[in-house]
Amino acid sequence: MFSNFDFDVIQRSWLYLFTTGMKFTLTLTLVAMVGGILFGTVLAMMRLSHNKAISLIATSYVNLIRSVPLVLVIFWFYFLVPYIGAWIIGAAQPVQVGAFSSALITFILFEAAYYCEIMRSGIQSIPRGQVSAGYALGMNYWQMMGNVVLPQAFRNMIPILLTQTIVLFQDVSLVYVLGSVPDFVTVASKIAQRDGRLVEMYMFVAVVYFVMSFGLSTLVKKLQQRVAIIR
């Protein structure tokens, strides 16, 4: 079955695949994760705000983003961000943002909607008695959130946050549609087309994603058991 396959293409290109393609994919994943968690935390606090207008804005944003396919959001921001940048600085021509910056903005804004819901669940898991105790000690809302609620919520949500990050790692492969960013799938695709070895290369890409995602999922599961023991 595999007699006509030439898996030497993987041996010839693995260094370039990992030092360029996988390096870009992991960089975009990690930076988008940090930005998504920070923005998602702000959105979660807005959703839980007693101010109905602020809560409505955050709720509308989360529902909108979660209702749109990610690939459409990638296209949308890739073409729209240059015009938004020009509008902000008052330039006559669209600003050259670059594919990486556009993809990064897209993933931060998109993933923040999912991180928001995780954080909201984590915040709501903290007993109301601790919140009341914080107010009783004279803390204001932000002091109570920063010193009492958020530290515990982050600890409780770490396994789920990391699971969502694994999903983000897989979603980054969708930047392939832009064709101008050197992510792992795009680099593998260019090598495959150059050498005429599409099946071998895409099989290798699938194996790499499976090994990394399964390995990370196993680590998250062990971490989840450890957090459960600490509780």
From TrEMBL:
Under the heading Pfam families, the entry gives: BPD_transp_1
Q: Which residues form a coiled coil?
A: none
Keywords of the record, alphabetical order, are: Amino-acid transport, Cell membrane, Membrane, Transmembrane, Transmembrane helix, Transport
Indicate where this protein resides in the cell: Cell inner membrane; Cell membrane
Q: Does the keyword Manganese apply?
A: no
Give the ABC transmembrane type-1 domain ranges: 22-220
Q: Spell out the family assignment given in the record's similarity comment.
A: Belongs to the binding-protein-dependent transport system permease family. HisMQ subfamily.
Listed name of the protein: Glutamate/aspartate import permease protein GltK
Organism, by scientific name, is Collimonas fungivorans
